[in-house]
Amino acid sequence: GALTARDRVGIQDFVLLDETTEVAVISNLKKRFSKDLIYTYIGTLIVSVNPYKDLDIYSKKQMDVYMGVNFFELPPHIYALADNAYHTMLTEFNNHFILISGESGAGKTEASKKILQYYAVSCPSTTLMNTVRDKMLMSNPVLEAFGNAKTLKNDNSSRFGKYMDIQFDSQGDAVGGHILNYLLEKSRVVHQNHGERNFHVFYQLVEGGSDDLLTQLGLERDVQHYYYLTQGECAIVSSINDKNDWKSVKNALQVIEFDETNTNHLFRVVASVLHLGNVHFDPDSKGHALLKNNTELNWVSDFPSQLLGVDANSLKEGLTFRKIEAKTEQVLSPFTIDHAIYVRDALAKAIYGQTFTWLVNRINESMENKDSSRKTVIGLLDIYGFEVFYVNSFEQFCINYCNEKLQQLFIQLTLKAEQEEYEAEGIEWEPVQFFNNKIICDLVEEKHRGIISILDEECLRPGDATDLTFLERLEEKMGNHPHFVTHKLADKMTRKTLERGDFRLLHYAGEVTYCVVGKLDKNNDLLYRNITNLVCQSKNTIVRECFSAVDTTNKRRPETVATQFKNSLQKLTEMLMAKEAWYIRCLKSNESKQPGQFDEALIRHQVKYLGLMEHLRVRRAGFAYRRKYEDFLKRYKPLCPATWPHWRGIPADGVELLVQHLGYLPDEYKMGRTKIFIRHPRTLYATEDAYEKCKHDLATKIETCWRGAQARKEKEKILMTTACNRAKNDKLIKTLIYP
Ligand SMILES: Nc1ncnc2c1ncn2[C@@H]1O[C@H](COP(=O)(O)OP(=O)(O)OP(=O)(O)O)[C@@H](O)[C@H]1O
């Protein structure tokens, strides 16, 4: 009864669409979007379209509506999913995760914040829980300051992948939290494309830091002064208030219990990166790099080394010379200017990247629950979607690989869950037709033979490995793989679309062309040993802690970036495999961030890259719909005289009578141990229609009776009956309207 006419625009669940074509899916999304209905289901998965305007659907009142209500009885909402995951966790005492995916600007971070807020409001709480809750909520502004940046697509774009566990005790209280971070886009620290900014925190510090703090850190209150802040030529953005955000960050740091020393050291690290960016070089007569003697850059007052807590001369030496250790002596080999810039930038990236991880660890300590009683968790995974626009990005390759893994996880989890459910219900397993992308995951990650292994081998082997030798190795090993092609391997037609330095992967969601230039360097992420040794001894505790774990002996075979990423993804998928999955797929409605605009081409593209059609096919394959006998009976019993108003026998028998009365053919449904399985959504859809009509007829009937009674002055009679009779009357009306 809570569904209003507005909520009935289009179809609320794609599983119920008559035809599962891309055209039908997009037209349904469009219809709903035009009425500000941004959420639509595919079974229990939510598709969300970014409205780019504030909708009045996230109030406390709305939260109350969704608390404890069956998933399909209210209009699709992110709260319905949050609530269902929570209640299933409580009743079944098991672990869950919510995977939020979509391209940049599609609304992933907003969705995950809304879920956190929902739990903050709806879960029971005590003072202790409030503290944990506040810390969880407050970790957001801090992580956003350090991990988000303005990009062309999103003024507050998360430049890292994030997984957050919310831990609940058996009462359903939120008692702790834990965050895992993935692949921060470190390259942004030293370089930003036109129209983009560095991470927010740098601008916040320069704009919002007190005069005293800036003096201490040797900073000018002028973002234009810093090379690392101005490459995108948009340091000041109207939609961002750095000064205010700085206040929120400082406040949040207090909530997550950062003491003065830690806070101070953290700001010093941020400032040191800005100073490092302003270190420039001049060539000497042989073209070797010399530090530019420019007082304005503060190098003279030694700010970079002071803030980093390292010896100034050693840092200067480390930025201009490579130390080569021969058997008995050390030889200093001077850098060219390009090389010196490379080393400076590598240091800035390493410091920032390590500090980010350090920050996540501190936040985790503050949210840690030390009580050892058993907890269940709901994990929120906000992870970058497929990127297809920027060729030549190493990060993009990793991101797309991550999406392949998550698609594989979805396939395994959904099919595994299906199969298990069929077995538990004693129903014969019917193979589902779908594309299994395991072949592509293997292509990327297989030991010794996958792209990452080959990249590693090229990075680590002695001799003159280059990006092009890497490409040649790929061609040798992948030669006739159906999902891999290069200029050399391609047929005539395809060759025209490929450069010589490109390779193309046929991802499950489409083709992406990658350029090999720079792959080796990015994968090595090299920081020279004398610099690493230096920062390991830093007087700044954060810097020291960050680098103390780095292996400077070079004895072990070092792990490259792609391998580290592969391993962390492996751990993540293993952890997720043991949990129950919920999905939110976020779509961007238009590129110009405007409300009310539904760009069909853009939506079609995302529907494809998010694998929505694939998802829909898997959900509809086999038996698309199933429900416990009791629930099925409770809802549809008015549709059959034998079950109305009460069925007193075994629920399964009642359901069988009911569906036979409705004309279900033997092939259209199966009776499991506890549930009825319905093959086509259309069948259920017809039953839903009949139910709605019946409900409407009953309501009309009751109203007519009531009016009739009124006419015969029987209203008074009813009102005069005893309290007991009245209660009975109410109950009768209730059963008639809400059977
Ligand atoms: N449910 C929503 N209601 C209103 N506006 C929204 C909603 N979701 C997103 N937006 C708008 O879109 C912007 C981008 O959303 P968000 O930052 O969540 O994207 P994202 O998918 O996390 O992007 P990225 O991958 O770049 O971090 C938000 O700043 C907000 O203005």
CATH class of the domain at 5-183 and 376-388 and 573-620: Alpha Beta
- CATH architecture annotation of the domain at 5-183 and 376-388 and 573-620: 3-Layer(aba) Sandwich
- The fraction of residues assigned to DSSP E strands is 5-15%
Looking at the structure, the CATH topology of the domain at 5-183 and 376-388 and 573-620 is Kinesin
Distinct small molecules: adenosine-5'-triphosphate
Largest sheet: 7 strands, mixed
Q: Shape, please?
A: globular
* Secondary structural class: alpha+beta
Q: What percent of the residues sit in helical stretches (DSSP H or I)? A: 40-55%
Straight-line distance between termini: 11 Å
Unreliable spans: 720-724
Number of helices: 30
- What's the number of extended β-strand segments? 19
Name of the CATH homologous superfamily of the domain at 5-183 and 376-388 and 573-620: Kinesin motor domain
Strand order of the largest sheet: 1-2-16-3-12-6-7
Using the CA coordinates, give the radius of gyration. 30 Å
What is the typical, i.e. mean, pLDDT? 86
Organism: Poecilia formosa (Amazon molly)
Pfam families: Myosin_head
Domain Myosin motor: 9-692
Region (Actin-binding): 569-591
